[in-house]
Write a structure and sequence with these properties.
- It is a single chain.
- The chain has one domain: Phosphate transport system protein phou homolog 2, domain 2 (Methane Monooxygenase Hydroxylase, Chain G, domain 1).
- The chain is mainly alpha-helical.
- The protein is elongated and about 70 Å long.
């Protein structure tokens, strides 16, 4: 391996480290948002907003690093796909940060009022989506297609929990119109968590693209005859 290749590998390694750091920040943000909801303690909110800014900074840094690598090393095949997938993943992680901020805004209003019901499924959803994001990033760094496929499969579990939350809250709203506003906020939180799960699926699909060169984001449909 010549000096040019070693330099490329070092720079690629830095991008991997930053991606994993972004994933860790996303996990911490999600933890804090759900902690705030469960404990009804607003103190984590300030840290969440700071971490969202950190995500934005890391996204810009990684995108700049990718552009530099493309310009100076002109990678091909798997390395090129890796860099393209990395830029898509940074966008997914940044969007997850935005969704967590949305959750925090709803939580801020909710904890000023009495709880609608004991929280069970929403913390479970948060735990699942955190794990899916983490597993998707580790699959990307390792180039592990089987691990990526496992992340995609678990999307149904998150969707099922979201549906369960919605059904139960609709029943609460029917029984007591005074809880409608609070119930709708909990529904929104569940939907935001579902969207975080969708971004984890995107990351896993990028792993398959990076390793196999196969874009699985949209199933192919038969071409219509003219």
């Amino acid at each position: 391996m010549d000096a040019h290749e070693r330099q490329f590998d070092r720079e690629l390694g830095e991008i991997k480290k930053k991606l994993l750091h972004m994933a860790a920040v996303v996990e911490a943000m999600t933890d804090r948002a759900i902690q705030e909801l469960v404990t009804r303690d607003e103190s984590p909110a300030a840290a969440i907003l700071q971490q969202e800014q950190e995500l934005n900074r890391l996204q810009i840094e990684i995108d700049d690093d990718v552009v530099t690598l493309l310009a100076t090393h002109q990678p091909v095949a798997g390395d090129l796909r890796y860099l393209l997938a990395a830029t898509r993943i940074t966008n997914d992680l940044e969007r997850i940060g935005d969704l967590v901020v949305n959750i925090t805004e709803n939580v801020h209003v909710l904890i000023q009022q009495p709880p609608v019901k004991p929280l069970e499924d929403i913390p479970r959803m948060a735990e699942l989506v955190r794990k899916r994001v983490r597993d998707g990033l580790h699959a990307f760094v390792r180039g592990d297609v089987l691990a990526a496929q496992a992340v995609i499969v678990t999307d149904d579990e998150v969707d099922d929990l979201k549906d369960k939350v919605q059904r139960e809250l609709v029943e609460h709203m029917k029984g007591d119109p005074q809880v409608i506003e609070r119930s709708l906020m909990l529904v929104l939180i569940a939907r935001h968590l579902e969207r975080i799960g969708d971004h984890a699926t995107n990351i896993a699909e990028d792993v398959i693209y990076q390793v196999q060169g196969q874009d699985v984001r949209h199933p192919r449909t038969p071409r219509q005859a003219n």
